[in-house]
Amino acid sequence: MKPTAKGRATRQAFLDAARRVVVRNGYLNARLSDIADEAGKSMASFYNYFDSKEALLAELAKDFDAELQALVAEPFRQGLPAIDALREAIRLFYRHYQRRTPEIVGIVQASMIDENFAKEWRQIRTNGVHTLARFVRNAQRDGWAPGLHPELAASALSSMLEHFCWVWIAHDGDAIEIELSEDVAVDTLWTLMAHAVYWRTDPA
Amino acid sequence: MKPTAKGRATRQAFLDAARRVVVRNGYLNARLSDIADEAGKSMASFYNYFDSKEALLAELAKDFDAELQALVAEPFRQGLPAIDALREAIRLFYRHYQRRTPEIVGIVQASMIDENFAKEWRQIRTNGVHTLARFVRNAQRDGWAPGLHPELAASALSSMLEHFCWVWIAHDGDAIEIELSEDVAVDTLWTLMAHAVYWRTDPA
Amino acid sequence: MKPTAKGRATRQAFLDAARRVVVRNGYLNARLSDIADEAGKSMASFYNYFDSKEALLAELAKDFDAELQALVAEPFRQGLPAIDALREAIRLFYRHYQRRTPEIVGIVQASMIDENFAKEWRQIRTNGVHTLARFVRNAQRDGWAPGLHPELAASALSSMLEHFCWVWIAHDGDAIEIELSEDVAVDTLWTLMAHAVYWRTDPA
Amino acid sequence: MKPTAKGRATRQAFLDAARRVVVRNGYLNARLSDIADEAGKSMASFYNYFDSKEALLAELAKDFDAELQALVAEPFRQGLPAIDALREAIRLFYRHYQRRTPEIVGIVQASMIDENFAKEWRQIRTNGVHTLARFVRNAQRDGWAPGLHPELAASALSSMLEHFCWVWIAHDGDAIEIELSEDVAVDTLWTLMAHAVYWRTDPA
DNA sequence: TATGAATGAGATTTCATTCAT
DNA sequence: GATGAATGAAATCTCATTCAT
Question: What average pLDDT does chain B have?
């Protein structure tokens, strides 16, 4: 069965509606009925296009990631000095997180709760890890961070970036005395990540 | 009014049962009826001891945290060189996470779903941040990491630790080629954290 | 969105079923499950048509009142001598009460329990008071009952009518020696009400 | 088993507590646990003294009625002219209702909902009906209201009094334009009741 | 006489999904 | 391709009452 133009439009309507509803209510509270209402369609119609609520959410996340990866990879591709590219990438990630907070909340919620979804989301995360791993390997080529496992380190650094934003942007931050600005946040993350990679001798 | 020995035993039975059920099914699927069954009591009885499902979960989380904090703070208190204490603390955190994975999954899930619970959990997290902040300040007293905001840096490093464990222990890790051992994980985290703090000049 | 014929039929089935169940068990004991069973539908289906149990009851009460008001106002509209119209209205009220006793019990019960419902019911009562007030004012135009506050008197007389029926029809009556017939009841009420209004000088 | 002094005190404590709770929360919301708390006793203890929640409520109502009957019968016993005694009795009833509104609400609620309780309450009501019936018979001895059934008329008049107070004191009154004072209320009721009885010829 | 403990028996509401048309 | 209708299966919490001590 070839999808007709009408069919494709309906499918897209569900996707758009779902995005809006998840942004508004969070993943857990995104009822199918809300999504259908928002799309101006019936719930029954939904099942002509998606297998389940989760299937639809997974598509949303994929879209979201495509945008994020393009954004973050850009500075490294532009031939900036690596250290500056890193700072820029952190800043872009941070801003993306800020701009799309509600969507992220929905996605993260979903990944916490739904194991299928979690798998997809980890796959997506991998793109970012690869970008960072490339950064580490480049530094190692210049003699920095000898012996560090590039992918694993990238995974850890990516975790820092991701979870820091989760705590400070998606939530109220940790209970410490500070009024966080973008500059301070980006500087701190950048300083930590840079020094974590640009060293030549073991800490001991 | 006054709880008897029997009452206290029942209360504890519910706590233990809840732990087992959450471990088995996750927080979202931890039905009160399951907990009651597991405890060998009636659901009605439950409400003699707890106000709600959430209240019980909060207690579980508090127990869990008490143990974790005691564990992690220990190495720093023992007068080890800071750099070694850090490695030891990371190792203990990692092991605790491994040993109690299912419980953590439950707690994190709960913090996604229940805003009250989330608040408590963030408060709990703060303890770890404070421990790390002390570590940073000590290093700064010796001239390291000048200008770094100790609490904020601690928050970021804590995020790395926590989220790395979440990804690699509670889940399948990132999609990279590696069979992670405790030693490699701890070493990598330790190396990153140590260098992130023990430096004297700006990265640029 | 648009209800089909089948939908309308289902909705009506719930209304009818609810009426029967309330009649049988009283409002407090009218379980939704009973209503659904009686309607031959599932409880979940109920919520496609009504927001809550109370919403359904409110509809029942409104139907009930519409019928009652039409009935009672009729004799006054037909140009009978006021005094005869009064008697006729009393008789119709009395019969309506008899015919629909169980429904009234449900409604009154509901008005005890649910404050929203109570408000609606008091509003409904007002219609009857207005009809009686008109009766009093007409009498006053002919010189009767000088000085009597027409609405307040109507409120009192309406109370007599309503509560007398509640006591004698909906319940077993007062503990006095009498086997009440409709004629005696209507005569007594009519005699009392008529004399309460058709007088020219103060009682003292 | 003779009740001990302590036992009697406990019993009374439950009665007092119940009164306060019903006044505060209404009958339907008077949970046994509240009553026990208020009494400073355990719920289990309650069952040493009463068969059920309803049994206790019935006692409350009886107390309440004893006071009311004494009050209302008084004017008739004092040898006032009947017509004046009537007015006085109405006034006392009205005031009693005002003073003890929350208690009445509880009792009436109970009588609407609980059939056993309703029976008791009707029995109680009978006292008032008898008082009024005596009044009617006295008037008839002087030639008034020939042919009127004294008990039944008394029942109707009693209904008027009771329900009028219910509507205007226990609730917001009917939706008519008036700011009701005690004097106006009593006057209106008295005028209606007096004329309803003091007449010599049929209304027709 | 007193009470902590325990429970049976509900009751309402939610929502993803299926089906007939 | 679209949708109104229908539902199964839960899930949480309440409360009067009983019982062992």
Answer: 88
